[in-house]
Structure formats: structure tokens, C-alpha cells
Specification:
The chain has three helices and no strands. By secondary structure, the protein is an all-alpha fold. The radius of gyration is 22 Å and the shape is elongated.
């Protein structure tokens, strides 16, 4: 049975909505995993001021530089 152009358009829009929902769920899961990793590393045990200072230093240096220094 042939579909009309409008039916095909509606099917594509529905598929796009489903994919957008899946992307949102994936982003949420990735965030949760990142928080778990930070927690596992013990960073959530730091006081908020100390954690803010640490993240400020990381932001100033950049991730690559921090990784390089930690690996040395």
C-alpha cells in the first residue's frame, strides 16, 4: 500500500521526536555517570569552596594541561 507524502512526513516527524527523546535520555544518563565518577573519586567529599577552587584551577589550566600534569 502506497503512503501519501503527508503520511511519510508525519512518520518522519514522529521518528525525529523519538530520536530527540532518546538523545535527551542519553544526555541524562551520561551526566549521571559523570557524577558517579566524580563521587567515586572522592571529589564530592570536598567542601564547596574547595571544590569550586579546584574546578576554577582546572578551568584556568584547561583539561589537557591538568591531565598532562597529573600524568607526570
Amino acid at each position: 500500500m502506497a503512503r501519501t507524502l503527508e503520511q511519510e512526513r508525519q512518520a518522519l516527524e514522529e521518528e525525529e521526536r523519538r530520536l530527540a527523546d532518546k538523545r535527551k535520555l542519553l544526555v541524562k544518563r551520561e551526566r549521571e555517570e559523570a557524577i558517579k565518577a566524580v563521587e567515586k573519586a572522592g571529589l564530592l567529599k570536598l567542601g564547596s569552596k574547595r571544590l569550586e577552587e579546584l574546578t576554577g584551577r582546572i578551568e584556568t589550566l584547561g583539561i589537557e594541561e591538568v591531565e598532562k600534569r597529573l600524568a607526570a
